[in-house]
Amino acid sequence: MSRLWRRLTSSPGAMVGLGAMALAYALAFLWLTGDLAGGGSGLETGFPAWERLFERRGFLRFEPVGWIVVGGWVWTFSPLNTLLALGLGILLGLNLLAAWWVWRSPRACGLGEASTSLLASIPALLLGGACCAPLVLIWLGLPLAGAVAGVMPILLPLAVVAMLVGLWRLARRLDRPP
Amino acid sequence: MYRFLLTAFLAWLVLVPALAAPPTREAPQGMVAYPLETLRAARRPGGPGRDGIPSIDRPRFVSADQARLDDDDIVIGLYHRGEARAYPQRILVWHEIVNDEVGGEALSITYCPLTATALGFRRGETELGVSGKLVNSNLVMYDRATGSEWPQILGAAIDGPLAGQGLEEVRVVWTTWGRWRARYPESEVLSERTGYVRNYRRDPYGSYAPLGGYYLPQSRRLFPVLHRDGRLPPKTLIYGVRTASGALAVDRRVLRDAGLIETRLGAERIVVIHDPGLDSAWAFRNPRGTSLDADTLGFGPEGVSGPGIEALEPLNGFEAMWFAWVAFYPATEFYAEVP
């Protein structure tokens, strides 16, 4: 883990890449979970419901406290949902960066291991996005929603565990002497 | 003394929820086609948990002039004790239940987006909430006094202390804002200031104007049902009426063309009258076989009027997606022929 940390903090490019990945994932997550959606016009903000900051509307899903309208987009803003989305994005970004470094490392077995870890992060990404998004299934018209709705609450913790395990394995690989 | 206090406490525990329970009928308004155990076993989690879809418990209203609605926006209309209120579908899609008080009476206006059903119920001292469960894709409500669970279309409890009993229904109308406003220009409209932040400009399931997404007639349902019937595309809206002895689904196109339909449900004569102003219908029992002429009937705030109407007994009817209606009422009569 120490080598991963050193490489990350010593490379501005890696930090920018991590930030970009975290932001992209967070936006995708917020869109999938419905916090970010269309239907807006103009520029408008309002925060009338701060008292609902910690109010849950589902497992690891919180009530919005306000809205931010920018053009056609409406963001029903929950600080906790946003923090969660960014946290997941950082975790995924770290996985991808570490997998990239392992893949680029000059050892014979690097390619296979990095690919495996990278592949492991893909279901994590999907699980993370799908965790609270039965609406996505509805948009897609999948009859799967009926079966999936019951397991939705466990998908997000599963995604986090999958990404933590993936990151731990990659960090160990990076720390191993060549 | 100790025993007395204990007895009093136990009595309080039993009586307080019972007193606050919603007003019920011993027999539900419509038939219940399945044993309650079957309906209980058919419950499915819909995704969000109990109150994960929050009901509106302190609704605010704006005047018709202040409402930000287009003429073709769907509203659920209520005219009760001389007061008219419109509940925009695009607000209810996020909340499903409004615990309101109209004309001094406590009512719950309920809407299930997955089955396109809107029903009003008397709620007494308690409130109805969204349980997070579905039966036949239909919203299962719960009452906050006893925790009994009520599938909306049935209007009957399938679990809890009130299992087997029925809620008292109040007629609400599925129509468009333009049509509702023309009939009830003084109508109040549910405000977007619901106490919650939601994107009321967007329906997460699809669109009614133009028709799209989940609401397309031929699109697939999402959750399992107890009975399937392919006579109509699954999401086709029918007008449904049910009594203790049977259920009737009327093809709305046929209803529009005919204006007035006279049929039977078991031994009872039933009349369904199309309301061209609201593009909805009024249903009645016709116990004396009174003859009616569609051309002599008129429509106003109180509903349909004209010669013969006073001899009829009003029945609650409502629009529903075909797949959901036939799932709850597998032996439903289906009226699809122009007489």
TrEMBL record, chain A:
Transmembrane segments: 12-32, 83-103, 115-140, 146-168
Alphabetical keyword list: Membrane, Transmembrane, Transmembrane helix
Domain of life according to the entry: Bacteria
Protein name: Uncharacterized protein
Organism: Bisbaumannia pacifica
TrEMBL record, chain B:
The UniProt record lists the keyword Signal: yes
Keyword Signal attributed: yes
Protein name: DUF3179 domain-containing protein
Keywords attached to this entry: Signal
InterPro entries: DUF3179
A family per Pfam: DUF3179
Top-rank lineage group of the source organism: Bacteria
Signal sequence extent: 1-20
